[in-house]
Amino acid sequence: MNKKIGILTSGGDCPGLNAIIHAVVKCASHKGWEVYGIPYGTDGFLKLEHGKCRSEDLKLREHGYDLPGLLHGIDILQFLSGSILGSLSKGNTEDKAIAQTIIQGYQNLELDALIAVGGDGSLDIIYDLAQKGGWNLVGIPKTIDNDVPFTERSIGFRTAVDTVTSALYDLTFTAASHDRTMIVQVMGRNAGHLALHAGIAGGADIILIPELTPKIDPDLINDICIRIAQLRWSGRKFALIVIAEGVKNQAGEKEKYIGDYLAQQIDEISHKLCLTDKPEFCDLDTIETRATVLGHIQRSGTPSSYDRLLAAAFAKKAIDLIAEEKYNQLVVWQNGEVQTQPLDKVVAHIKQRHELGLCPSPVEPDGFLVQTARSLGIYLG
Ligand code: F6P
After folding, report:
1. When you count CB atoms within 10 A of the terminal residue's CB, does the N or C end of the chain come out lower?
2. Ligand 1 near 12 CB (within 6 A)
3. From the CB of 144, is ligand 1 less than 6 Å away?
4. Domain 162-296 annotated CATH 3.40.50.460
5. pLDDT of residue 77
6. Burial of residue 234, with CB atoms counted within 10 A of its CB: 0-12 exposed, 13-18 middle, 19 or more buried
7. What is the pLDDT of residues 305-325, one digit of tens each?
8. Per CATH, the architecture of 4-156+303-355 is what?
């Protein structure tokens, strides 16, 4: 039976969103289905209702993004970052009237099903709307934070790991040339996956993630300075520190520039340690610390082959689920393959963790990658 399905991207963007859209359109077109791209997440339904866009303009075509001239035929979409549909970072559905209009928008479009590509916050909100509006929903996890529960991988994460790893490589040479301690602040919200993965792959000496070092206290700084002193003593005059943005200051509060905060603390305590006259600390008086915030560059960049592959696999599964009319499922990556998890279970877990102020899927404090980092001599607190 021919179907009419919708797709939207919601929450912070990440590399690989267009690769999902590309793959969904291809898989659906091969079945003879129509795909409608909902602009700006669920706000697209509001726009439809308010007459700010027309349903006929939302139809996505399989070869709708060809290049001119002899490049005609290259379907570039899967290689582009961002989302051709746009995304929505802030929820507005607590307002009952808005939520009702969004639900109405879905119904008026007469969709058979909706694929929502989102992170933990978006999946939570859209699942609630779907329940209220009787939508046939399939979720696909995306986020550079990799913190959607019940999936080992989310779209965008691996590309962000590559971006941070490459930045660490680039910073290594300037760090070495000036005997500097380079601090790199990376995204991840309350999770340390991005910092941990990239820190190991990029040769960091110290990795600070909220799961292991929730806040920067004097003991931690002391240990970090000792670690830097040991490195210098052993002949490595520079150091690379990766800090996840979720690590808090000494008062347990979030800092916008936690990397700068850490740099100041290291400068202060290393100079104090110098005064203790211990030979291994005497070199610390020349320590120079610089912090770099990688920021939104981590959300862009060409999606890696891994993320494009994952996007294709997730899209195929989402289309299969719709063909079987198995709704309210999240497509996930577990044990090396694509599987599904019921959205009610996923969303209940997300809600419960959010209520406690906790990350829905944090780094395992004694997981294999943490052990790997420690075995490599990386200081993790
Ligand atoms: O959740 C993805 C993420 O990039 C986080 O890592 C980061 O804290 C946040 O979004 C940034 O959000 P915004 O783009 O709204 O500043």
Report:
1. N
2. yes
3. yes
4. yes
5. 92
6. exposed
7. 999 999 999 999 999 999 999
8. 3-Layer(aba) Sandwich (3.40)
